[in-house]
Each structure stands twice: as structure tokens, then as C-alpha cells.
Design goal:
Low-confidence stretches: 1-5
Helix content: 10-25%
Oligomer: single chain
Strand content: 25-35%
Structural class: alpha+beta
Order of helices and strands: HEEHEEEEEEHHEEEEEH
Number of strands: 13
Largest sheet: 6 strands, mixed
Mean pLDDT: 94
Number of domains: 1
Shape: globular
CATH topology: tt1808, chain A
Length: 190
Amino acid sequence: MTPQTLAKPISPEAYLAQEEQASDRHEYIQGVIKPMAGGTPTHHKLAFNTAITLKIALKKQAYEIFHADQRLWIPSQQIYTYPDVMVTGKPLVLQEGRKDTVLNACLIAEVLSPATKNYDRSEKFHYYRSIPEFQDYLLIEPEQLFVEHYHRQGPKQWSLTEYTAIDEVIHLVSIDCDLALADIYEDIEL
């Protein structure tokens, strides 16, 4: 039996060329391309509800709100990913030479799934924390009424608040916005 050979890392440029032709989305993690898992209807509804609620709350303010298909580049980690929901400040900061990849996420929300929840809570959160503008991280549980809110308190310091009641409201200090759990979980059967 011969040892299995490891695939040669792919350059960011090769990934972008492949991604432009792909019908499905893929993450790029330090030279490795990984397919992104498809979401359930509940997953999509939670992400959409969150994005719409943020869009309404931040209307006419200096923010952009993205849902699902907007690519984020984390240069210090060599990561391309597609957060479920992302808020950036204006002006939008794009990757040099690109019109489809943003850099300046200040808030990211991920809807958890059995396949990704450990990654979203650990390595992915670690990658996101290297973004200088990044201040708020929401992890939304689709199986129960439960949202984890991480907020940057200072360099290398984050606070966690857990929300479990439909009448609770998350205050996002970094963008001065309130996000009601009732709006996130609207029309979701638990």
C-alpha cells in the first residue's frame, strides 16, 4: 500500500478563475478549495430574514448588506468565503483588481448546520477575527430559538451573549442597530 499523496495547493488566482466558471460556490482556505454545503429552506429563510431586517434597520445609513452570494476575501488568512449575511461599511472596499470580492465586513451572520457548526464556531470565527473592521458575529441555530452574539470588546477580547426568547432584541453596538429574534425567526417552524 502506498501513502496517499496530498494535492498541491492552488493559488488564489486559479481558485478565482475556477469559481467564475463554477455553478456551485466554493470556499478557498489557504490553497484548498472546498465545496460549500447546500442549505435547507429553513437555513435560507433565516439568512434572508436576517438580511432583510438589517436592510430595513440600516436604510439610508452608510452600510451595505449582503446575503449568501457575496464573496469575502480575508487576505491575512488567505481565505475566500461566502458568509450567509454580511454587513460592510461604505465605501465598499473591494479586493484590488476585483469587482466581486469585498474586504471590509463589520458584521457577519452564519446560520448553523450540523455539517458546519463546529467550523463556524471555531476556525471560521478565528479567520473572521483577523478582519480589522469585524465587530459582530451572529450564529443562528435553525433547530431551536437560539442566537449567539459575539461582540469585539478590544484587541483579542470578545464578549458572548446568548439569546433564547422570541421577545429578545440583539443590540449591535458597532452599527447602532437592534435586531429582534422575532424578525430573525419569522415564519420559521421550530
